[in-house]
Design brief:
The complex is a heterodimer of chains A (199) and B (234). Chain A has 199 residues and is mainly α. Chain A is 78% helix and 0% strand. In chain A, helix 5 (85-102) packs antiparallel against helix 6 (110-134) and helix 7 (136-145) crosses helix 8. Chain B is flat and about 65 Å long. The chains are: A mainly alpha (199), B mainly alpha (234).
Chain lengths: 199, 234
């Protein structure tokens, strides 16, 4: 398995910056959807950043690429004052699985990249869904103490707990897969033939 | 008073102090009353911005914070618009931390950030990556204007009728620009010995100074006040 070189790290850092810009943009886009939009915001972000994901898999294609990208995002969110431990854990686990799925080389099938993106972003979404399933009371109390109103928190939990948590997961996964296929459609004529031979 | 402010030297802080404050502050919401912590962080960030003479950031902090709070109070009782207020009230808690993060991005150069981050013993790969990402995010406005300019010269425009095509015009040049930039930044990094597996020294040796300790002391005292306040109101 090839290790990430300095050039790869720098490219991931630059693409992570682009990813963060889209993440913030997706937060603005989902605002009118209210709590439901919040629960699927990772999916909206994934739809917009599927091309970044596909580009990384073709231009780098080394184990650790998605973990590094996720770690950069998590450190930046922490520096911006938005860190949340369960989110960090589920996101990093999702990124690790994504690396196992699609980081063997830079010629992975587009379906594998889409699957990796799905797991990567479901990992992010589970930062809110897992606490709603297993630690509901402490999750609710923490966000109320962070300034959220009890009514808004109950509304949010409605879309992340129980069956709605499963629905949100499925939507995030589907949007992530669609994002990578969109990225593939956009980039295939711009990347060299060998890069897309397997796709 | 204004004269004193102008004569007073700008406060110099080790960037690691700002990073630590931003990492610790949000996790304190579990232990401290949310309203107290939010008010404390707002005052604390404002004072730091004044002492560091970041007056534009201070004005931006006030405008953004009070606009968001204003919209919250205007919409929270309306059934149709309530979602806007409820969305903003979650975001507003991050605004003081974002103001401090903006100092990190604008005031310190990459060498200063690298030097500071290396003192907290996180993996070097992550230090390099986070530093580059932090410095690159603010440049996107300029990058986007370059793309718009080249589109204008080619007679291409964004159109909501063709969203995918328009998105493609933006994302493709940006992705390949990142790839080209990665080559340049890597070459510059190699010249500066970024890949050498020894502890690097820096022209900007960031040490913890008295001013850093004083700021941390005020921060910790504020948090301790929050603990006491919560205990008194239990």
């Amino acid at each position: 398995m090839k290790k990430l070189k300095i050039k790869d790290v720098i490219m991931i850092a630059l693409l992570s910056a682009l990813y963060m810009v889209f993440y913030m943009l997706s937060m603005v886009i989902i605002a009118p959807l209210g709590p439901f939009g919040h629960s699927i915001s990772c999916g909206i972000c994934a739809l917009l950043t599927g091309s970044i994901f596909f580009f990384i898999s073709r231009k780098i294609g080394k184990f650790g690429q998605f973990m590094l990208m996720q770690a950069i995002c998590m450190v930046l969110f922490s520096i911006m004052g938005a860190g949340y431990l369960p989110w960090l854990v589920t996101s990093m686990v999702g990124a690790l699985i994504a690396d196992f799925i699609a980081s063997k080389d830079n010629n992975q099938h587009v379906f594998k990249v889409a699957l990796a993106s799905g797991i990567f972003h479901v990992g992010q979404a589970w930062g809110a869904i897992i606490p709603s399933w297993f630690f509901l009371d402490s999750y609710r109390e923490e966000w109320i103490s962070r300034g959220q109103t009890p009514e808004a928190m109950d509304e949010m939990i409605k879309y992340t707990s129980g069956a709605m948590g499963v629905v949100s997961t499925v939507i995030v996964f589907a949007l992530s897969v669609a994002g990578v296929y969109l990225g593939y459609a956009i980039l295939r004529k711009h990347l060299e033939k060998k890069d897309i031979a397997m796709a | 008073m204004q004269g004193v402010m102008l004569v007073m030297k700008s406060l110099k802080l080790n960037p690691i102090v700002l990073i630590l404050i931003n990492i610790i502050a949000p996790s304190m919401y579990i232990f401290i009353n949310g309203k107290y912590l939010q008010a404390f962080l707002f005052v604390f960030a404002s004072m730091l911005l004044i002492l560091m003479k970041r007056f534009k950031s201070l004005v931006a902090l006030f405008i953004i914070y009070f606009s968001m709070m204003g919209i919250y109070y205007m919409t929270v009782n309306s059934e149709k618009l309530q979602f806007i207020g409820l969305f903003l009230i979650v975001l507003v808690q991050s605004v003081p931390c974002l103001a401090l993060a903006s100092i990190l991005v604008r005031k310190y150069n990459s060498a200063q950030l690298l030097s500071a981050l290396e003192t907290i013993h996180i993996p070097r790969v992550l230090v390099i990556a986070v530093t580059i990402t932090l410095k690159y995010i603010p440049t996107f406005k300029r990058e986007f204007s370059y793309i718009l300019e080249s589109m204008r010269l080619r007679g291409i425009s964004f159109s909501l009728k063709h969203p995918i095509k328009s998105f493609q015009y933006f994302i493709v040049p940006q992705l390949f620009r990142c790839a080209a930039l990665a080559e340049e930044v890597t070459a510059a990094g190699f010249v500066k010995g970024i890949d050498v597996p020894v502890k690097r020294t820096s022209y900007y040796e960031e040490r913890i100074r008295v001013s850093d300790a004083a700021v941390l002391l005020v921060f910790v005292t504020g948090l301790a006040g929050g603990f006491l306040w919560k205990r008194m109101h239990l």
